[in-house]
Write a structure and sequence with these properties.
Layout: H1 2-13, E1 31-33, H2 40-52, E2 63-65, E3 69-70, H3 79-94, E4 99-101, E5 108-110, E6 116-118, H4 120-129, E7 133-142, E8 145-154, E9 160-172
Parallel strand pairs: 2-4, 2-7, 3-7
Antiparallel strand pairs: 1-9, 5-6, 7-8, 8-9
Helix pairs in contact: 2-3
């Protein structure tokens, strides 16, 4: 319950002008999570379990964690992107993997063919940290839902090892 309250407070800080009595704020002006939305902690930890399922701890060096970015602007994150990243990192760490935090918003670019390409900034940091993989992801708002995708990407060749998606119901609060 305390973690849910903390998540609510942190998400609310990320949104100017958004408030709701019994809902968590979503850092998109005018939206809050719907009252029936699943817990961000629970759903982020499920996503982290999906990412490392079948991954050998012995064969995996440190994993670099980046902030999730907006699909509408891959150079920007928000409270939602940062909070989900924190919770996924917690879930991966709880499963025995070493996670290196990186507060990067330029982790991914998308080519004209729609391919996800890791930035040179991520590659340099990964070399310095001896990381073997990176967790990166995106989120986007479509209608009354926030869609989130997180991916575990092998740094040596950019191959997506695993991926997890979830969506969250939103309510328009107007502004």
């Amino acid at each position: 319950m305390r973690m849910r309250f903390l998540a609510t407070v942190l998400l609310a800080i990320g949104v100017a002008g958004c408030s709701a009595a019994n809902t968590e704020a979503v850092p998109v002006a005018g939206y809050v999570l719907a009252p029936d939305a699943p817990s961000l902690v629970d759903i982020s930890h499920l996503a982290s379990a999906d990412l490392v399922r079948g991954l050998s701890r012995e064969d995996c060096g440190p994993i670099l964690m980046t902030s999730l970015v907006s699909l509408h602007d891959l150079k920007r994150s928000s409270g939602l992107g940062r909070i989900v990243s924190e919770m996924v990192a917690t879930g991966v760490t709880a499963r025995g993997y070493s996670v290196v935090e990186a507060r990067l918003t330029k982790a991914l670019t998308i080519s004209s063919a729609g391919e996800h390409i890791l930035s040179s900034e991520v590659r340099e940091l990964a070399r310095a940290q001896k990381a073997t993989a990176v967790i990166a992801g995106t989120y986007g708002i479509l209608g009354d839902r926030a869609y989130v995708t997180v991916r575990l990407i092998r740094l040596s060749d950019g191959v997506i090892i695993s991926s997890s998606d979830f969506d969250l119901p939103l309510v328009w609060q107007g502004s």
